[in-house]
Amino acid sequence: MTGRNRRSVRSSSRRARFTAGVAGLTVVAGAVAGAVLVAAGPSAAVASGSGSSVTTITPAAAVSPTLRGAGGSVADAAAGASGSVAGASGSVAGAGASVRTWAVKAASVSADPARIVAGVRADQPVRIVSVRTIGGRPSVSSVTVTGRASATAAVAAAQQDAATVSVGVDEVVHLTDDGTATAAATNDPLRSRQWALTTLKAETDWTKSTGSGVTVAVIDTGVQASHPDLAGQVLKGIDLVGDKPASTDGSNDENGHGTHVAGIIAAVANNKIGVAGLAPNVKILPIRVLDADGSGYDSDMAKGIIQAVDRGAKVINLSVGGTEAGATSSAVQYALSKNVTVVAAAGNERQDGNATSYPAADAGVIGVAATDSTNKDADFSNTGSYVDVAAPGVSILSTYMGSQYATMSGTSMATPYVAATAALLKSVSPGLTPAQVTTALESTATDLGAAGRDDVFGYGLINPYAALCGQVSCDGSSPTVATAFRLASGAGSTVVAGTRVTVRATLTDASTGEAIGGSAVSVCVRTLPAPTLRCTATTTAATGAVTWTGIATGTTTVYFTHDADATTTASSTATATYTATAKTTLRAGKGTLTATVTPATRQGVTLDRWSGKTWVKVSTKTSSAAGVASFTKLKPATYRVRVAAGTATAASTSTSARVS
C-alpha cells in the first residue's frame, strides 16, 4: 500500500475517527452507458482502517450486458398498596410516554471545567460544544475560543445553564481512508461481484420486503444524488459542514464515502445499471457532516442526527466512530426516544489498541463488526461487548462519487447492510421499536465463532430473510404477533405520601399499532416497606387499555406484563415509580416548633434556621412513634425541618415556619 494519500488522525488521543476502514478501495467508474468491465482483483483487508492504493483503468468500448441475477435458494433461510385494577374506561390515546434518556445530564455538566479542557494549549483555538434541552428536543451549539483559560470559562458558562445536558471540547472526526481506485465503465454485470448480497440472499429477501416506505439517513460525507444507480432514491437533505459546498441539501459528495454507503443500502436493483442495494426501495436522506477530506466535528454529527430524526428518518446509518462519548451520544438517545433505529460501526482499530468505539457502544445502538466472503472476521474489525451483530465488510462493491463504482472495506461498509436490514423490517412492521429491531436481528443471526454471543461477531452474521420471517409469513402459517405494552399515562413522579395515583397502559400489535383487547395481563405493584411485588391478573379493555389506581402510602412501583400465548409474544411496560416523601406539618409557638411526620417511622428530623443568607443546622432529633419531634428554647427566626429517608419514604424538606 502506498502512503502518499494517507489522511492522518494524529491530532489527539481523544479525537474521534471516522471508521471508513478503507482497506483496498477500488473504483469501477466511467460512462454509465457501458464499457467493458475490467475486473480489478479484490483488495486485501488492511487493519486499523488504513487504506489502499489507487489504480486507474481506461474505459473500453461500449457494450450492452444484461443483469446477472444471483438467484439463491430459500433453504437455510429460517435458520403491597391497596388499589384497583380494571380495563381502562374510555379510550387511551397515543403510544405511551417515552423516557427522554437524552435529557439526562452527563457527568460533564458537573465536572471540573479545567479537567474537561486539560488538553487545550494556552494559545490553541478550540470549539466548545454543548447540548441543551430546548422545546423538548436537544439543541447543539458551539463557540470558538482561544486558549485554555477561555475554554475553561466557556465550559463553566455552559454548565451554569440549567438546560445544559452535556458540554465538552468539540472533537474533530476524520475519514481514515487511504484510498486507491481502479476505473472502468460497466452497464450491468456488477451484481455478480457483490458477494455480500449473495451471502445475505438479497433476491430471496426481496420476496418479503424491499424497504418501501422507509427513509434511512446516511450521516456522512454527502451522497451524490445524480448517480445513475441512485436515481430517484435520494431525498433533499442538509449540509452542515459550512464549507461553501456545491449544494446545501447533502446531495454533493466530494469524498465518495457517503455515496458508497448509500449504494450498499439503496442502489436501484434490476435497472441494468451497476450494482444493487440490499433495500432497493428505501429512500436515502443525505446529511453531510464531513468535508472532502472526510473531516468534521462531533457537534455537526450530533446536529445531523437530530436533523435526521426531525426530517422523518426511521433508521440512521453512522459509519463513524470515536473513543469518547460526546454530544453525539445525547443526539443518539434523542433518536432512540423517537423510535428511530440507530446503527453504527464497531471501528477498525483492532490492530491499533482496539479501543471501545462510540456511538456503537452507546446504549440502544446496534454495533456492527465486519466479516469477509468466507464468513471470517475481518482482522481490522474491533471487538468488544458492544458488538451486537456482524455483516459483510471486506471488498464491498458499491456506488461512488463521479457516477463511478468502488470496492471498499471496513466496518463502515458492514454497517449499511445492517441499516438496510433494519429498513426491510420497518417496511413490513412500521411499529417496531429500536429494541425490537435489535432483538429481531440478534435472535435470527447465524452464529459464528465461539458458540453463542461473543465479542468478535456479537450474535453472529445478520440473516435478513430469517429476521423478516419473524414479521411476515414465510411458510404459509400466520406469524406470532409481536406485542408492545406501553405506559400511556402515569409514568411516575415524586409525590407526598398518601397521594392517590393512577397508571394506565395500552397493549398493541407492535407492527400495526392496533389495540389488543380482551387479553390476559397482570399488574405488579410494590409499595414500601413491602418486601416484594404483588401481581394481580386482569384483562385489557377493547381499546387495549388497562388501569391501576391506588394510594402511595410509601414509594410505589407499578408495571404491567403480558405473558406469551399461542398467538402473541410476551411484553412488559416500563416501570412507573412514585417516590413518596413524608408529609410534614409544622406548628410554631413562642420559642417552640413541633414537627409531625406522616407516615410515622421514627425518622431523623433535622431543624435548620435561616440566617438571612443560608440555612444553618440547629439540631437533630428522632421522631416519636407517633411521628412527632419537638424543639424548644428557640430564638425568634424562620425555621424548617429536613426529614431523613425512612423505610417507605425518601428524604424531604418541609416548608418554613416563623417562631416568635
Automatic annotation (TrEMBL):
Pfam families in the record: Peptidase_S8
A GO molecular-function annotation: serine-type endopeptidase activity
Keyword Secreted in record: yes
Example GO BP: proteolysis
InterPro entries noted in UniProt: Peptidase_S8/S53_dom (IPR000209), Peptidase_S8/S53_dom_sf (IPR036852), Peptidase_S8_Asp-AS (IPR023827), Peptidase_S8_His-AS (IPR022398), Peptidase_S8_Ser-AS (IPR023828), Peptidase_S8_subtilisin-like (IPR050131), Peptidase_S8_subtilisin-rel (IPR015500), Thermitase-like_dom (IPR034084)
Keywords recorded for this protein, A-Z: Hydrolase, Protease, Secreted, Serine protease
Catalytic machinery residues: 220, 257, 412
Family note: Belongs to the peptidase S8 family.
UniProt cross-references to PANTHER family, sorted A to Z: CEREVISIN-RELATED, PEPTIDASE S8
Name of the protein: Peptidase S8
Species, as recorded: Cryptosporangium phraense
Organism taxonomic ancestry: Bacteria, Bacillati, Actinomycetota, Actinomycetes, Cryptosporangiales
